[in-house]
Amino acid sequence: MAEISSIHSVEISTIAHATEDTSKVEEALRRLLLGTSLPFTRRYLEGHHRNPIVRVDTRLSRKDAVRFAETLMRDLPRSERLRIQRNLALHSDDEGNLYIRLDKQKLFLGEVRLGEEDPVRVKIKFSRLLGESERAMTDLLESE
User: Fold this and answer.
1) Which residues touch 125 (CB under 8 Å, ≥6 apart)?
2) Which tens digit of pLDDT belongs to each residue from 60-94?
3) Which domain holds residue 117?
4) How confident is the prediction for the chain on average, in pLDDT?
5) What's the predicted TM-score (pTM) here?
6) Partner residues linked to 13 by β-bridges
7) What is the domain-level CATH number for residue 44?
8) Which residues contact 2 (CB under 8 A, 6 or more apart)?
9) How many folded domains does the chain comprise?
10) Residue 66: left (phi > 0), alpha (psi -120 to 50), or beta?
11) Residue 7: which H helix or E strand, with range?
12) How many whole angstroms separate alpha carbon 64 and alpha carbon 34?
């Protein structure tokens, strides 16, 4: 299991397209966030074809971030965690961040799966002061 104190924070963001109900997108994110009442920030943007889009995001501090990361690893199929681990260089950076993209449409159905198209972006930040971030990421991905 990952050293609990090594997880510093989590940032979660996604885009609600003009064809989607922003409140339903937030509802799907709340299920992912275990029903917490954390506030979402909405940023109203314009898409490539001038279509309205809303960026929805939130940030979890240390205690909530640890709980979220542990639950995410429990809900994400082992095969998908192993895929991230095998390609860790593509999912992390030198600053101690782990990046995971989840399938937003599956989240609407209550399933946690990786997805590249129209994803929910999850950034798990590990403290670089407490040791090797890569080892902490691997420990988290191997946890059950």
Assistant:
1) 7, 8, 9, 10, 11, 65, 95, 96, 97
2) 998 899 989 999 999 999 999 999 999 999 999 98
3) 4-142
4) 89
5) 0.90
6) 57, 121
7) 3.30.1440.10
8) 69, 136, 137, 139, 140, 143
9) 1
10) alpha
11) strand 7-16
12) 10
